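User: I'm writing a tutorial on reading structure tokens. Could you give me a worked example: one chain, its sequence, then its tokens, then a sentence or two explaining what the tokens reveal?
Assistant: Sure. Here is the example chain.
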Amino acid sequence: MRIGFDLLECLRTASRVPDIGNPELALLEVDGALPQHPRFRSYWYDAALHSSVGMFLGVDLIRHDGRYHVLELNHGPSIYPRRRAMYDTPYDPIVAGLVSAAKEQRFKRVVPIAFGWNQLYVDEFERAGREFGLTIVPTNCPIERPGAARIVGLPDPLDPDTMYVVHSGLMSPLCRYVDNKWYTSKWLAHAIEHDLPANTKVTVPRTEDKFFFPDEDHGERWPNLVVKLAGGARSACVIAGRFEDEDDARRTLGIGGGRAVPKALRLEFANALLFHGRDRVLYQSFVPPELDARGHAQLLRLHLFVSPLGTTYLSAHRRVSQNPVPARAPRGIIGRDEMIIFNNADYHRLPDELEGDMRDVAAHLGEATRRAIARKFQAGSHLENELRVYQV
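And here are its predicted structure tokens:
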């Protein structure tokens, strides 16, 4: 249907519309703020009702040379019970942070929305609501699952005095804009240059949607190029490689032109084309992670809640590879290597000094995200000078 509509637009305007069949990937072509569908808002504030909608985001970071390199933002980041096991506190910091933000902003009701809440978190949300005098209604979207309420879209109008927390399930073009790797590389780079203070520790690796060979080499131990699909999740569409030079990289990847699809990603690219529309192949400079005392790679996962009323730091932890990084990286494509590009990681709490850094990073990333959204989307009836940043 979307392809047909776009083809009709091509005929009507006698021009080619960008990203035929996949309009949410054409947002970089848009000037001005787009409206959001009332039932699929992801970032909104209605001052008359005192009702807000915000996004729960996970951010993957690598600390290198004193700066924090943003690899990607995740809409619907994984929240496993084994992560909860790190904390001996009465409530998960995520639950405590959302409750504190709701109380601070004088909401009476909180609706956390996810594709499927784990029963552990359903119980914890409800217990926190009883203790802190809030009505908390964990909600699944759009599939009915036991233990929680169900919705297929937000109410219109929104319920008064309610803070909606969109973790996952309620997909929208705004969510795609925030977590798509191509979009992130563009709007975040712009925000770092124009919106954040000069001393920010937040940065992004060089990322292009056509082939380039990085100038910087971090030594024999590391890859020198990362290739990924912009819409991929959970590292399923990411490969890394160590190549001698540009010719070696092109030959090994099986690419000729600048926007050709590498052999190792063609199946995933075809699946994306079939089910979601055209994806972008991204090329990115490799940023080496820090190693622990055993030689295992460390990646940082930050959780934050971003809404028109501010940014709330929720939690952060280390994800540590289960295998040590070898002294010399193999030549050619490394692929989904559990030592460098990993999902099966061990979780560790952060030391206090690093936790402080994460709060600063969350404040800067939250500000960058909010400004990027304000440039592209209408965000409700609120005044810019009413906005504040909350760090819980």
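What the tokens reveal: The first strand starts at residue 44 and ends at 46. The two ends are 45 Å apart (CA to CA).
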